[in-house]
Amino acid sequence: MKFSRVTAAIVMASLSAPLFAASEQSVGTLTAVSQGTVVARDGKLLPARAGQSLFVGDRVITRGSSAKVAMQGCNVALKPTSILSVGTAGCAAPQSFAATQDDTSGAGEGTGGSSTGYIIGGLALVAVAGGIVAATSNTSTKAVSP
């Protein structure tokens, strides 16, 4: 009995479906949220709601709000301007992305404190210039066949 490649691909996909379904099991729940809390999932921001299931890889983000998360026998309270990465290891401490109060000197704002953007911009400029040079330089005298 011969199988076509399409048949083999369909059989492989159907056999692997239970593997993908197992990876989408809930590992936590949002027990309380206030307006402004979002869940980052698969590159999209979803408005958070109480009772919402959380999956591995999700991030709960409180911009100016707060939230409470229940995961595998523990509860985590997120203060405003915090991020909680949901993983398989159980509870993790949320990280705050709020500016610290003792950072009043202004260092880092326009003084070269963070040059990552300039480095990436410079590399992009070099890449574009290299592409233009490579595309426009033709030192060959041979005719090119269409």
Apparent shape? elongated
* Main structural class: alpha+beta
User: For the CA atoms, what is the radius of gyration?
Assistant: 25 Å
Low-confidence stretches: 17-22, 102-113
Q: Which assembly state applies to the chains in this document?
A: single chain
Total beta-strand segments: 9
Strand order within the widest beta sheet: 3-2-5-8-9
Number of helices: 2
Distance between the termini: 46 Å
Mean pLDDT: 74
Can you describe what's shown?
The strands form two sheets. Strands 3-2-5-8-9 form a five-stranded antiparallel sheet, with no helix packed on it. With about 150 residues, it is an alpha+beta fold. Residues about 15-20 and about 100-115 have low confidence and may be disordered. About 25% of the residues lie in helices and about 25% in strands.
Keywords:
146 residues; alpha+beta; five-stranded antiparallel β-sheet; four-stranded antiparallel β-sheet; 9 strands; 27% helix; elongated
Element layout with pairings:
Layout: H1 5-22, E1 28-33, E2 37-41, E3 44-47, E4 53-54, E5 59-62, E6 67-71, E7 74-78, E8 82-85, E9 95-96, H2 116-136
Antiparallel strand pairs: 1-4, 1-6, 2-3, 2-5, 5-8, 6-7, 8-9
Question: Quick summary of this structure?
Answer:
The chain is an alpha+beta fold and about 150 residues long. The protein is about 25% helix and about 25% strand.
